[in-house]
Amino acid sequence: MARPKSIENRSELILQAADELFSRYGFERTSIDDIARHLGISKGSIYLDFKSKEDILFTIIERHAQRLHKLMDEKIATSTSPALEILRDTVLESSLLVYDLITRDLHTPEALLHTSIAWKPRFEHYFVKKRARFLALLQRAADEGDIAPHMVNEATVVAFMMAISSIHPPYFDNYSEARDRMSRNLLEQRGKALLALLIDGLRRR
């Protein structure tokens, strides 16, 4: 059997195991010992790649953030659609990707990017880039003549992001008598309706 120091893709295996255990039991209830036991390696082997349990969690959430950035950036770079359509499509697709990733259980580490006040400051770069991306799309829409130039500002972007937060975790249904978490189909339906209203509201009259 390979020595712990020479296990191929050891850091990747650690991240996969940690993601599974954090999702199943929660971050606080999972220890480095639990992760090592799950993999059949020594606790010391984990510290060869990660400084702490928090470092492992940070890496998992950072990968989630980068996955969302990549989805949006590729859509923006390759689409020839009008900017407002790109804005609509990227928001809907990314919200469904998030849903698919985290609804195994809201203990899932990726959910913390969207729900944890404690962890959000460590991912300031994610939110700054997201606002900048939306602002650039609004500027492109203004250049295309679809929205008025005075709509291209930080306040519009923040208002837009406040609205779309309703189709992101933790998926509380504050809009009906339902008590269950929204299903994917319902999220998609409501996302499309919400984005239709928002995009129509942005259009030049």
Terminal residue distance: 69 Å
Q: Main sheet, how many strands, which sense, barrel?
A: none
Under the CATH scheme, which architecture of the largest domain would be assigned? Orthogonal Bundle
* Structural category: mainly alpha
Cα-atom radius of gyration = 20 Å
Net shape: elongated
Quaternary organisation of the protein chains = single chain
What is the H/E order? HHHHHHHHH
Question: What does this 3D model show about the protein?
Answer:
The structure is a single chain. The chain has 205 residues and is mainly α. The protein folds into two domains: 4-47, Arc Repressor Mutant, subunit A (Orthogonal Bundle), CATH 1.10.10.60; 60-202, Orthogonal Bundle (Tetracycline Repressor, domain 2). It is 63% helix and 0% strand. The chain is elongated. Residues 1-5 have low confidence and may be disordered.
Topology of helices and strands:
Elements: H1 10-25, H2 32-39, H3 43-47, H4 53-78, H5 83-102, H6 112-115, H7 124-143, H8 154-164, H9 184-202
Helix pairs in contact: 1-2, 1-4, 4-5, 4-7, 5-7, 5-9, 7-8
Concise overview:
This protein is mainly alpha-helical and 205 residues long. It is 63% helix and 0% strand.
